[in-house]
Amino acid sequence: MVRMRKQFRDLASPEEAREAIASLHLTPDAETVALEDARGRVLAERIDAELDVPGFDRASMDGYAVRARDTFGADEADPVELDLAGAVHAGSEPDVAVDPGTAVEISTGAVMPPGADAVVIVERTDERDGSLVVYSAVAPGDSVMPAGTDIAAGARALGPGTRLTPREIGLLSALGVDEVPVRGKPTVGIVSTGDELVRPGDELRPEAGEIYDVNSYTIAAGVEEAGGVPKLYPHAGDDYGELERLLRRAADECDLVLSSGSTSASAVDVIYRVVEERGELLLHGVSVKPGKPMLVGTLGEGSAYVGLPGYPVSALTIFRTFVAPAIRDAAGLPEPRTATVEGTMATRERYAEGRTRLMPVGLVADGDGETLVYPVDKGSGATTSLVEADGVVEVAADVEYLAEGESVTVHLFSPDVRAPELLGVGEDDPALSRLLDRVSSPRYLPFGSREGLRRLRDDIADVAVVAGDRGDAVEEIDAVELGSWTREWGLVVPDGNPDGVSGLADLVDDDLRFVNRDSNSGLRTDLGNAVAALADERGTTRHELVEAIEGFDRGTKAFESPARAVAAGRADAGLGLRATADSLGLDFVSLGKQRVAVLANPARTEKPGVASLRGVLAASGDLLADLAGFERT
Predict the structure, then answer these.
(1) Is the peptide bond before 290 cis (omega within 30 degrees of 0)?
(2) pTM of the shown model
């Protein structure tokens, strides 16, 4: 028998996707929790007061309990004198009554003694030889809180759907409630697939293409933030029998099952089979970028199912846009008021793909404190985009571009997201990492000197960190230098320098495996200049020498990567810093000193984060003292 798969030839619109997810039944049964565990939960039913709060008439001020009529006519010129009959303190049952012509000392919160109907505050009295002199008349009820003033027995105290904050917890405590009926939190099972995934804490083998499982933990945190209870399952690898078993188990145990990375043809076959046997597939594919291959359906009567994309940014974007609202609704939680912010585009962004775009963006404040929004586009597979991106801007399918200065709404990945106090872009550098440790809430993007200058020019970055001689590129940008240092750069080689590398010429003349930095790096630029100088010495071309160096045209992003390749035996030499070689126990062949400068956007020099970095740079000597090859300039 041939199983016919249901085809979804037309991608669903975002609105249809929201409707499909909204149609899923995620709401769990109500439960009862102890009052001390109730903060943040949502009441499942109305709670009425079963007693008066307060349960007695009590004094609201320190003073003397009296019969109001005994004070009528009293003033400064003609005070009234009453006999003192005793005292009543908070937490004690009165053992004295107020008879005509008498008064009883009373503390704030104490029970009003029999016979008294008012309190004269202590400031309007004077004690004299066992008597009380009253200088001001009071009316019945003055400075007295009658029983039931807060809430009376039988009154509606809190209604269903109320989120329990410390204020409501206080009221429930006053009513003597020790257990609270609350909305259940939906249990969300999370299943990640792919043979390449390894759980954090387990041994990773990069040479085998393994990567740490990002989605399980990212989505679990999102589920918890939305009011659900995440439940992580072992990842199924590409064992589709195991995937089917896990999906069935999760469906039996959870209100909602989320999978990620399960959109390959073979994995989808498994999901179709489970869905067709136990539930219904509502849609396959949504007209959005990123996240086109989303699946929505049910896995039987007890569980809903959503298949998320495999790339971390895509998975988080689709989760936050479509799934998190459904979890919040099931848990009875409202959309956070701070879940969106308004800003203006820092740069123009073109887009014309005919489907809704969920554009990851970052936030930065300009010199006037206004929020600027810039696109984050390193590809949905780039995990670091999760840190750089603060949220998404939804761009309609018929919008071809967003103009610089155009107002946009940013849907934040988390209500707690705030723009960083300092946004820096530029060279990757160990000294800079130490300096940033002393700045509050910085965000630094180590994209290289070239990209730092571009983002400074485009008014995105607060500061750019630039290494080497950038000459005309720096002069074209209006910037203020905050400080600088030098670092020793050269070739990192194995401990003991087994190949006897003494300089750049050895890379050209010997058969050595070399690992370079990427073209955005200032180290790569200075290396290129050194190769050009060597070519001039030899009377040849730079191109000919570059062709002779194995690996010159292939670069790595991070400053330690070439050195780590050498340490692992994958290279004979790598472009790097003396400090890196020392820290990894490798040898080093110096090619010179390189200046690293921190350049600031002149319109933002008064931003607290920029001012803080300037101060740190001015006192950076101690931070650089033990870093090999670094000197403050």
Answers:
(1) yes
(2) 0.73
